[in-house]
Amino acid sequence: MLTPFRVDTNSLYLTDELNRVGIEVARKVIVGDDRAALREAMREALERAEVVIAVGGLGPTEDDVTREAVAELLERKLQLNEAILRGLQERFRRFGRQMAEVNKRQAMVPEGATPLENKRGTAPGLWMETDGGIVILLPGPPHELKAMFEAQVRSRLEKLSGGLRLHARELRVTGLPESDLDQRIAPIYTGYSDAQTTVLAAPGEIQIHLRAWSREASAANRLLDEMVERIRFALGETVFTTRGEELEEVVAKLLNENGATIAVAESCTGGLVAQRLTSIPGSSSYFLGGVVCYSNEVKAAWVDVPEELIQEKGAVSSEVALALAEGIRRRSGASLGLGITGIAGPGGGTREKPVGTVHMALAGSAGMKERSFHFPGDRERIRQQASQAALDMVRRYFLAKQREAGGKN
Amino acid sequence: MLTPFRVDTNSLYLTDELNRVGIEVARKVIVGDDRAALREAMREALERAEVVIAVGGLGPTEDDVTREAVAELLERKLQLNEAILRGLQERFRRFGRQMAEVNKRQAMVPEGATPLENKRGTAPGLWMETDGGIVILLPGPPHELKAMFEAQVRSRLEKLSGGLRLHARELRVTGLPESDLDQRIAPIYTGYSDAQTTVLAAPGEIQIHLRAWSREASAANRLLDEMVERIRFALGETVFTTRGEELEEVVAKLLNENGATIAVAESCTGGLVAQRLTSIPGSSSYFLGGVVCYSNEVKAAWVDVPEELIQEKGAVSSEVALALAEGIRRRSGASLGLGITGIAGPGGGTREKPVGTVHMALAGSAGMKERSFHFPGDRERIRQQASQAALDMVRRYFLAKQREAGGKN
């Protein structure tokens, strides 16, 4: 973790889990595979916190020094644990291999420590209680760490932390610039001193995280629900979920609920919209097909965009977006057709149609809608924002339908 | 950075940059916005290292305490820097806004510190030399941090670190399991005690990072080039780049070099292959179009897969993959047609065709090739591995062509 290669996701997972059981993370320290450095880092941590979790360094090689470092620090002898050794030998037998002598190191347990079984790998974890606090050793591979935490660590920590818990909510927003969003909701969240608000922006999406520490679940939930309602009211339909869903999940749900099907004809997004719509399990119930039509010939031959229209208005135009949407709807027999054309760059921009110009259209039984955008950023950000706006068109189509149906009742 | 929301990428960027100028990262510490905690963390760091970089906490709000913490630690007074203040006021004027009083805090500079201009934001950085070492304060937003590091920090650090530099190489491999790869190359890299080797596996791809610290560029480069050559020889054509390229970049280059064009008909990958092929700037020179054909009707109507064939062999079969490849090639007029069909799951698997079964085919002027796979993992991993294998089929098609051309000469 001191190289430039590996993003730290374990500590995010652990922070989330610890917060949920009422434990705040006071500090994160990353040290190399050095016994003295690790021992000193853990000593400092134990002076500061009641619970210290060390991740990684439990493997069989000489680089794996966490067991030794913690045994030294707590002045406990390492003893061979026969049960762990048998488990390791058994595991190797199951995979038809002979256990190497070095793996024996993984069966060494400091006196008084409770081993934590690793069902996904060879490295057992350890749970140790001392005068200074609790030390937990977990394996580094994320799937091993998660399985061990869920099965053996979470419930133990829940007992420790009394009734204090972190309660959290998340809203996700699309179609609103971050500065506008903050102007609208800052007057709300600054009024709640008992809750922390974090606003995170990604291309085409803003996440609003609300968190409150409390011993009383009902009070915290009331507070957070009230904040969610007020923020949702201030932001209106730009809020697409309060359940942490991806936009494509929300759109998939709306398509299924309405018994609708969709097909996509995309140019500048190059398959990204189809890929997102089909990333959801069971997407074959609503997704009929997609066409990535880069060349003008393909736009004409595969989606019936009139060549005169392309010549007259240009391939990147509202008119061509509408023709793509209508063409793909007719060709696929889907209830909705989505058409996207634009300039993702870096080349291809002009003064009239700069890089970032994107036109999109949605065709349904009740008619057509179209929207035009100028997205900032590089090719990847432009494509991401365009796919987000296209999915949002589908979402808003169903919201409008619901409103109309409500109005008629 | 002590919440569960934000992945730490700044420290990876800085580690890479520091390594390049010959500075090794000994420790990373993440503390909250607390002046005492920050001061103590920096004190500990200065005892341990010659250079300490603090990232973030330079904004105008009360939470931003890095300037104060470092001034306290080094016992230096904070003084208002008139030039920075004027720059801030100027910046606000340019955006048509009035500077708030709180922003004045950003113009406070500890005695003897050198301000580092921030062209992308309001928070200036700071460079401070002390008896104990060098302290550098950088802003948290990644684009501000990067711009400031490149323009004002890198060259200063280069002077400090003498001639010691980290030299690095990277190989990327596809189509080989990690255990096989390690068995083939461990005898090589374990023989080089002067170089560190890191092997990182992702779905469908393994990266091999080679690093050597040296004062002599030529010796390090000789060593690393020799390792690259030996590893490349051991792994053969599974190595697709030694320049850190994505597989789609390598394929794009091969298509362009060969004056070839491609079209894709994909089922289980749902647009992912098209999206990757079009993520490269200038992809319109080789990518003609793609079809995402989820339903059997679309496979028949859009890519001319005979319905009898689907009934007889099943939609997930080598025969249908071949028909997709040939159909999309004919329909698009591309020199290469790529067809992919499979079961990404979680539903849809059977005993004969379990989740992860993927058939793919490539059609060219010289004939057709097909391959079948059983990929492990969840929907996302299966789709990722399938797209990787599909792109690799295109790469290997050109490698075979080159070999044949070589053989004929």
Brief digest:
By secondary structure, chain A is of the alpha+beta class. Chain A has three domains: 10-160, MoaB/Mog-like domain (Molybdenum Cofactor Biosythetic Enzyme, Chain A, 3-Layer(aba) Sandwich); 165-241, Alpha-Beta Plaits (2-Layer Sandwich); 247-408, CinA-like (Maf protein), CATH 3.90.950.20. The first copy, chain A, contains 13 helices and 16 strands.
What would you note in describing this structure?
2 copies of one chain form a homodimer. Chain A is of the alpha+beta class and 409 residues long. Chain A folds into 3 domains: 10-160, MoaB/Mog-like domain (Molybdenum Cofactor Biosythetic Enzyme, Chain A, 3-Layer(aba) Sandwich), CATH 3.40.980; 165-241, Alpha-Beta Plaits; 247-408, CinA-like (Maf protein, Alpha-Beta Complex). Chain A contains 13 helices and 16 strands. In chain A, helix 8 (247-257) packs parallel to helix 13 (379-408). The longest helix of chain A has 30 residues, at 379-408. The radius of gyration of chain A is 28 Å and the shape is elongated. The interface between A and B is large, with 68 and 68 residues.
Total of helices of chain A: 13
Q: What distance separates the N and C termini of chain A?
A: 60 Å
Order of helices and strands of chain A: HEHEHEHEEEEHEHEEHEHEHEHHHEEEH
Give the CATH H-level superfamily of the largest domain in chain A.
Answer: CinA-like
Q: Characterize the quaternary organization of these chains.
A: homodimer
Helix content of chain A: 40-55%
Radius of gyration of chain A: 28 Å
CATH class of the largest domain in chain A: Alpha Beta
The side-by-side strand order for the widest beta sheet of chain A comes to: 13-12-14-15-16
Counting structural domains of chain A, the number is: 3
Q: How much of the sequence of chain A is in beta strands?
A: 15-25%
Do you know the CATH topology of the largest domain in chain A?
Answer: Maf protein
Structural class of chain A, by secondary structure, is: alpha+beta
Detail the poorly predicted runs of chain A. Answer: none
